[in-house]
């Protein structure tokens, strides 16, 4: 068995070559794959600065420097899994409702091949149809969730709309896609529409770890605890880049200060190792607000770290 490899910087300069994630082979269907990277270029679910539609292209562009082996954890994803880039979902940028259905159908097809997905957003609305497709694919087992974000994303409506980047998790709970007792939200902070904004999550049994509880400390102990409380069963990782402080990730639509560090972001994703991770996404990168490209580069690296914690990845 030979596995797809990212195109090496010694074979083709890093600033050239294919525009796929890590310059992996591109593939039109998920046939034969263990993992597919998928771009979801949606930003019509967002409520403030737009631009996340450019996220997939930009995150892929900044992924060129990532090499195959993770030196700290020993993870060797390309020694043990068949991985490719499945391109972008052909969304309808004039119609959010239709877009949500298109995304769900796209993922249903990929998951039917037994292929796990790592998704490049796009704004956070994409997680709802992705979770719908996963819930359908895995049957009665409800999904656990590791959700990194500055925001709870549990509004009932935004401007009268029920499916947006700020309402997706409330819909996912109402639709019974996720098991609240196996959900954790990390990094929530800043200002609320009302004083009890984060209580909707807590009332349903979701564990909420506000940013202030993360300040000045390693999140490795928190993740030890999260692994115990989430236990066995499927877990999805949804990482909103605005969970991190704008000092590290300024290129996003709804930035909030005093957030997590990039190190803490790595600790959270690496701390998912050992969970039954069925997929993940990295959302809300808005390249027009990211002149250095560092937000996209950080997003690319967090997606690589998600790849490294998937079950079945060898560690050296
Ligand atoms: Mn979000
Ligand atoms: Mn957010």
Protein architecture, described:
This protein is of the alpha/beta class and 316 residues long. The protein has one domain (25-308): Ureohydrolase domain (Arginase, Chain A, 3-Layer(aba) Sandwich), CATH 3.40.800.10. The protein contains eight helices and ten strands. It has helices at residues 55-61, 96-112, 127-138, 168-174, 199-203, 220-230, 262-270, 294-308, and strands at 35-40, 75-76, 83-88, 116-121, 143-148, 178-188, 207-210, 234-240, 276-283, 314-315. The chain binds manganese (II) ion (MN) (2 copies).
Give me the secondary-structure topology.
Elements: E1 35-40, H1 55-61, E2 75-76, E3 83-88, H2 96-112, E4 116-121, H3 127-138, E5 143-148, H4 168-174, E6 178-188, H5 199-203, E7 207-210, H6 220-230, E8 234-240, H7 262-270, E9 276-283, H8 294-308, E10 314-315
Parallel strand pairs: 1-3, 1-4, 4-9, 5-6, 5-8, 6-7, 8-9
Antiparallel strand pairs: 2-10
Helix pairs in contact: 1-8, 2-3, 3-4, 7-8
Query: In one word, what is the shape?
Result: globular
Low-pLDDT residue intervals, each spanning 5 or more residues:
none
Task: Give the helix proportion (percent range).
Answer: 25-40%
| Secondary structure: number of strands | 10
Do you know the CATH topology?
Answer: Arginase, Chain A
Radius of gyration: 18 Å
**Percentage beta strand:** 15-25%
Indicate the structural class: alpha/beta
Bound molecules: manganese (II) ion
Q: Numbering strands along the chain, what is their spatial order in the largest sheet?
A: 3-1-4-9-8-5-6-7
* CATH uppermost class: Alpha Beta
Total DSSP helices:
8
Task: Let me know the average pLDDT.
Answer: 98
Distance between the termini: 19 Å
CATH superfamily membership:
Ureohydrolase domain
Compute the number of structural domains: 1
Reading the helices and strands in chain order gives EHEEHEHEHEHEHEHEHE
| CATH architecture group name | 3-Layer(aba) Sandwich
Major beta sheet, specifics? 8 strands, parallel
């Amino acid at each position: 068995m030979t596995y797809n490899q990212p195109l090496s910087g010694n074979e083709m300069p890093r600033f050239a070559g294919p525009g796929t994630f890590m310059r992996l082979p591109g593939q039109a269907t998920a046939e034969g794959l263990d993992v597919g990277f998928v771009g979801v270029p949606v930003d019509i679910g967002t409520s403030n600065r737009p631009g996340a539609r450019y996220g997939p292209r930009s995150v892929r562009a900044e992924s060129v420097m990532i090499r195959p082996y993770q030196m700290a954890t020993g993870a060797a994803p390309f020694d043990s899994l068949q991985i490719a880039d499945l391109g972008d979902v052909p969304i309808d940028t004039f119609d959010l409702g239709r877009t949500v259905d298109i995304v769900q159908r796209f993922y249903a097809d990929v998951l039917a091949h037994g292929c796990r997905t790592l998704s490049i957003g796009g704004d956070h609305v994409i997680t709802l149809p992705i979770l719908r497709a996963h819930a359908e694919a895995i049957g009665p087992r409800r999904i656990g969730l590791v959700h990194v974000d500055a925001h709870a994303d549990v509004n009932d409506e935004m401007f009268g709309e029920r499916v947006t980047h700020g309402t997706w998790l409330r819909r996912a709970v109402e639709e019974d896609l996720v098991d609240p007792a196996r959900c954790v939200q990390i990094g929530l902070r800043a200002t609320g529409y009302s004083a009890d904004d984060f209580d909707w999550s807590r009332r349903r049994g979701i564990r909420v770890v506000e940013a202030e509880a993360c300040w000045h400390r390693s999140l490795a102990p928190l993740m030890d605890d999260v692994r115990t409380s989430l236990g066995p069963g499927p877990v999805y990782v949804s990482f909103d880049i605005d969970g991190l402080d704008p000092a590290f990730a300024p290129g996003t639509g709804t930035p909030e200060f005093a957030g997590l560090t990039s190190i803490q972001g790595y600790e959270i994703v690496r701390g998912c190792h050992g969970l039954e991770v069925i997929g993940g996404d990295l959302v809300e990168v808005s390249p027009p607000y990211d002149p250095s490209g560092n937000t996209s580069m950080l997003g690319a690296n967090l997606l690589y770290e998600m790849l490294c914690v998937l079950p079945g990845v060898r560690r050296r």
